[in-house]
């Protein structure tokens, strides 16, 4: 039997609490999951059931959203983050990681956090969720994948200015990204021989050096070396011809060189159903591909589709891993 999924509450002033309720209402019994957070922060539009351990989640699902209570320091006013809640947000993530590392849950799904609120209220030292999860798990290097039924894409560099990408794009970084992606597709997606398409950095993949030499000096040598080890790699490819339907049919995941090169295609193809996946952790982690949406928090209009898909993908990955 697959272990339940731990859903962290995220920033309580955002749309996380209402999405958790919406996901339970939509999935009723399809997926065993429970929320870790303060039950007083829930809107109360659906029933919830307090549980004392992850093992109680499956039995409680029929009666309401199972909640593993974690008291916070402040109230939850939609749209207005309270610094008193920042420490609780971080502690809930750490608690979920503990449950995953002790194999009490099959996966973690994380609701959105607000980085500034965490920094202001708890002096949070990490750029975001991914880096914090890696630190908690004792992992030096992880990879961010955005996944949907139409596309899986991985950016080699993530949250840095575009002007810094050429310097950050080293052979070591690219090789580690490819290796972690390949291993993640094998372990968590059940793909025995992953096919990876690798984008170039420059327009037309550099056009033989006329528009830049990163493809010649950095990307191509890494791909050639890894092909010699048996990796199924195509590229470096012009990014503007990688994401139409016929091209996507030829690979299982695309490796992009920077944030927007990866995220624009998937958000164009599947804006509401994209899922953020962290590869390289010793457990499964997914997240909806959106933020806290303070502007609509508490209004009951937030779309739960991405969270629902994140929970479904977490279950699928956990089953593949098992």
Would you give an account of this structure?
- It catalyses: 4-(phosphooxy)-L-threonine + NAD(+) = 3-amino-2-oxopropyl phosphate + CO2 + NADH.
- Its main location: cytoplasm.
- Its cofactor is Zn(2+); Mg(2+); Co(2+).
- Pathway: Cofactor biosynthesis; pyridoxine 5'-phosphate biosynthesis; pyridoxine 5'-phosphate from D-erythrose 4-phosphate: step 4/5.
- A 12-stranded mixed sheet has the order 3-4-2-1-5-12-11-6-7-10-8-9, with helices on both faces.
- The mean pLDDT is 95.
- It folds into 2 domains: 1-142 and 275-322, Isopropylmalate Dehydrogenase (3-Layer(aba) Sandwich); 150-269, Isopropylmalate Dehydrogenase (3-Layer(aba) Sandwich).
- Helix 3 packs across helix 4 and helix 7 crosses helix 8 (214-228).
- The chain is of the alpha/beta class.
- Helix content is 37%, strand content 17%.
- The chain has helices spanning 16-27, 57-60, 86-101, 115-122, 129-137, 165-168, 171-189, 214-228, 245-248, 259-269, 305-321, and strands at residues 5-8, 33-37, 48-50, 65-69, 107-110, 143-147, 152-155, 195-199, 232-237, 253-256, 275-279, 285-288.
What is the chain-wise order of helices and strands? EHEEHEHEHHEEHHEHEHEHEEH
Please identify which CATH superfamily of the largest domain we are dealing with.
Isopropylmalate Dehydrogenase
- Let me know the largest β-sheet: 12 strands, mixed
Judged by helices, strands and strand pairing, the structural class is alpha/beta
Return residue spans where pLDDT drops below 50 for at least 5 consecutive residues: none
Principal-axis shape equals: globular
Subcellular location: Cytoplasm
GO molecular function: 4-hydroxythreonine-4-phosphate dehydrogenase activity; cobalt ion binding; magnesium ion binding; NAD binding; zinc ion binding
Protein name: 4-hydroxythreonine-4-phosphate dehydrogenase
Pathway: Cofactor biosynthesis; pyridoxine 5'-phosphate biosynthesis; pyridoxine 5'-phosphate from D-erythrose 4-phosphate: step 4/5
